[in-house]
């Protein structure tokens, strides 16, 4: 296992992070998983033995149950782990039941600390943009939580490029503790982050941690044109994520992943994870699993290095459309690209036959 500094910080995080969306299963989250305390402890031990040093959770996961299970499973081990959690989404009824306001965030952080049986979080994510609360208020809250010792670093998740930039640079202007990382969705099929978030994060010194690099079960090798999602899985239920704009393109990616897996003698999810890990501007990946066997298989992909030809084959199958202004930059501005965007622009230029 290798370790990376998360953004412009001294926090060293393993390239793979243990995710806990599958912990619990109440309130409709049974479609993602139903890991109990005993199984969570086993998965934590497996991760530790592999060199993983960080665990990612959220108050939203089974509406607090995932955090409670994690807190129980980690008894006596708190100092051995980096703990990450999140808040923003609705946790109770009423006008202040969600958001990135002082009124919502402070009690949510306190609740997470109580469930996790800890005095501090090593990292805290704002789980999504709040378009109503002034950014200045959110920044002041995060700064106060850092100064109080309740969190040590913070970042944002599911922000757009301009939201990320506004948050970072306004924090610096006002003298508040600035975000150091973003947690975003990115897979061999879900490539939207290449437009702004991955290169923008790199340019701004914002680390990029990838959530659900297997597309919430889409890229496990169990789904293709002839095999629909099975009942009892996220994709075989009413689970709405991820959004798929072009299902044929998804199947093309799955086909190529299978081809490369056969070449390597590895599994489809191992190839999918290796591809994301080797892409530019990616720092770390959050791995979720329903059981120890899945987790062991996913972690083993850390030892797989795809060839340039294999990386390109997968990239071409899932290459996203060249939307404006990116097609314009690919056509006319490739003489002076930012290093963080160059590879993406070259791909879009190829789409246009230039």
Task: Record keyword descriptors for this entry.
354 residues, alpha/beta, eight-stranded parallel β-barrel, two-stranded antiparallel ribbon, 10 strands, 39% helix, 13% strand
3D architecture notes:
Helix 1 links the parallel strand 3 and strand 4. Helix 5 runs parallel beside helix 6, helix 7 packs across helix 8 and helix 7 runs antiparallel to helix 10. This protein has 354 residues and is α/β, with parallel strands linked by helices. It starts with a strand and ends with a helix. 39% of the residues lie in helices and 13% in strands. Strands 3-4-5-6-7-8-9-10 form an eight-stranded parallel beta barrel, surrounded by five helices.
Strand order of the largest sheet: 3-4-5-6-7-8-9-10
| Total helical elements | 12
Q: How many strand units?
A: 10
Mean pLDDT: 94
Biggest sheet, in brief? 8 strands, parallel, barrel
Radius of gyration: 20 Å
- Tell me the span between the first and last alpha carbons: 40 Å
Shape: globular
Helix content: 25-40%
Percent strand equals 5-15%
- The helix/strand order is EEEHEHEHEHEHEHEHHEHHHH
Classification by helices and strands = alpha/beta
Q: How would you sum up this structure in a few lines?
A:
By secondary structure, the chain is α/β, with parallel strands linked by helices.
Topology:
Layout: E1 3-5, E2 12-14, E3 16-19, H1 37-49, E4 54-56, H2 65-73, E5 82-87, H3 102-116, E6 121-126, H4 135-147, E7 151-157, H5 161-174, E8 181-185, H6 197-204, E9 207-211, H7 247-264, H8 268-278, E10 284-287, H9 292-299, H10 308-318, H11 326-332, H12 342-351
Parallel strand pairs: 3-4, 3-10, 4-5, 5-6, 6-7, 7-8, 8-9, 9-10
Antiparallel strand pairs: 1-2
Helix pairs in contact: 1-2, 1-9, 2-3, 5-6, 7-8, 7-10, 11-12
């Amino acid at each position: 296992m290798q370790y990376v500094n998360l953004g412009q910080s001294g926090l060293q995080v393993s390239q793979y992070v243990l995710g806990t969306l599958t912990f619990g299963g109440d309130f409709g989250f049974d479609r993602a998983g139903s890991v109990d305390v005993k199984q969570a402890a086993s998965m934590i031990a497996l991760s530790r033995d592999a060199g993983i040093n960080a665990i990612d959770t959220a108050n939203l996961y089974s509406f607090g149950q995932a955090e409670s299970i994690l807190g129980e499973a980690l008894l006596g081990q708190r100092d051995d782990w980096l703990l990450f959690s999140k808040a923003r989404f609705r946790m109770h009824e009423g006008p202040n039941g969600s958001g990135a306001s002082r009124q919502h965030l402070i009690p949510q952080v306190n609740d997470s600390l109580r469930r996790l049986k800890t005095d501090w979080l090593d990292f805290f994510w704002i789980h999504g943009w709040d378009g109503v609360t002034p950014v200045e208020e959110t920044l002041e809250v995060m700064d106060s939580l850092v100064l109080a010792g309740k969190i040590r670093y913070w970042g944002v998740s599911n922000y757009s490029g301009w939201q990320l930039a506004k948050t970072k640079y306004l924090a610096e202007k006002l003298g508040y503790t600035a975000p150091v990382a973003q947690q975003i969705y990115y897979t061999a099929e879900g490539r939207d982050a290449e437009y702004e978030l991955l290169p923008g994060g790199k340019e701004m010194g914002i680390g990029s941690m990838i959530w659900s690099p297997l597309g919430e079960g889409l890229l496990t090798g169990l789904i293709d044109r002839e095999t629909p999602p099975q009942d009892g899985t996220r994709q075989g239920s009413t689970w709405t994520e991820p959004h798929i704009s072009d299902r044929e393109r998804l199947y093309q990616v799955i086909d190529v992943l299978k081809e490369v897996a056969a070449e390597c003698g590895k599994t489809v999810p191992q190839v999918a994870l290796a591809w994301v890990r080797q892409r530019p501007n990616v720092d770390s990946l959050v791995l979720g699993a329903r059981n120890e066997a899945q987790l062991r298989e996913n972690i083993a992909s850390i030892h797989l290095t795809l060839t340039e030809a294999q990386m390109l084959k997968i990239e071409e199958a899932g290459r996203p459309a060249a939307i404006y202004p990116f097609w314009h930059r690919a056509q006319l501005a490739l003489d002076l690209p930012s290093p963080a965007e160059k590879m993406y622009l070259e791909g879009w230029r190829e789409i246009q036959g230039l």
